[in-house]
Amino acid sequence: MSQARTPTLLEREPLTAALLAQWHAIDSLLDGLPTDRWEAPTPLPGWAVRDVVAHLVGTESMLEGIDPPVDADAVPDSPHVHNPIGAFNERWILGLRDRTAAELLAAYRDITARRAGALAAMTQDDFDAPAMTPVGPDSYGRFMRTRLFDCWFHEHDLRDALALPGDEGGARAEYALAELLTGLGYAVGKKGGAPHGSSVTFALTGPMAPTDDRPREIHVAVGGRAAVVAALPAPATVILTLDSRLFTRLCGGRLRPADRIDEIAISGDEDLGRRIAANLAFTI
Fold first, then answer.
1. In the chain, what are the domains?
2. CB under 8 Å to 192, separation ≥6 — which residues?
3. Comparing C-alpha atoms, which of 119, 99, 112, 109 is closest to residue 39?
4. I need a labelling partner for 16 at 20 to 30 A (CA). Which of 77, 105, 123, 262 fits?
């Protein structure tokens, strides 16, 4: 019999502050954006800027108990919809498609303000309470970390679509990275096929590195299953050195690995390194 997973307990106040700061960052990005730029395609297949915003409005509305504006059977089959979560997202995108850019931004501001009020009324016990999250049963705090992760990723989807780069370090990025790393073992072991007994180090340069001349090292050991570990007992089987901006986009499936493989320095088992780099995408 498998043991129940230990819940992820997260301190309410700094996580809430980071989530509110994330919503504000997206608001500031959209404020004053010319109407035609809301139609710019994003790295997400089938979604323009306006669709990403509609998705954010929809998810936060769901958390406030608001139903999607259209029924499930109104959503047509689309090649970019692969699972029930994707189908649910499309109900909001379709239902908000007739909104103007100004109306979508107003809806975004309204629902994030409502969610900010709801979070402010919560206690630490509320954050520690059991909840069903997008990654399975865990704590409500974990759910809010997945919300920050989702919003952080979508901020940079918007920035990439609009060619408006922004800060990808700091507290918001740390929460997003912590959530991202929960799936890295799966990408390395299951998708990348790293063999039992092997190990991988990702050396991240760029905004997530502690200093300009010292990369951030993330280690994955492959035992019974692959998992992120604090340190390795011996040199890694392979080391992949790459910018953290490229790392997050590859993990999020936003880029084709073959198009960017020359930006990844691989030392050690090069075949394994290339296989892992080609299979990093694992987010929904």
1. 12-166 (1.20.120.450), 179-278 (3.30.1050.10)
2. 272, 275, 276, 278, 279, 280
3. 99
4. 105
Q: 240 pairs with which residues across the strands?
A: 202, 266
For the CA atoms of 71, 115, 65, 111, the dihedral, rounded to the nearest 10 degrees, stands at -30
Structure tokens at 64: 């406030």
In whole angstroms, what is the distance from residue 191 CA to residue 185 CA? 9
Please report which residue ranges of the chain form alpha helices under DSSP H: 12-30, 49-63, 84-95, 101-120, 124-128, 140-162, 171-180, 184-186, 244-251, 257-260, 270-278
What pLDDT, in 10s, does the model give residues 122-157? 999 999 999 999 999 999 999 999 999 999 999 999
Q: Which residue is associated with the tokens 């090292």? A: 217
79-103 pLDDT, tens digit each: 677 777 777 788 899 999 999 999 9
What tokens were used for 264? 């990844």
Contact 238, 266 (CB under 8 A): yes
Residues listed for the chain:
284
115 and 81 in contact (C-beta within 8 Å)?
no
Rounded CA separation 96/258 (Å): 35
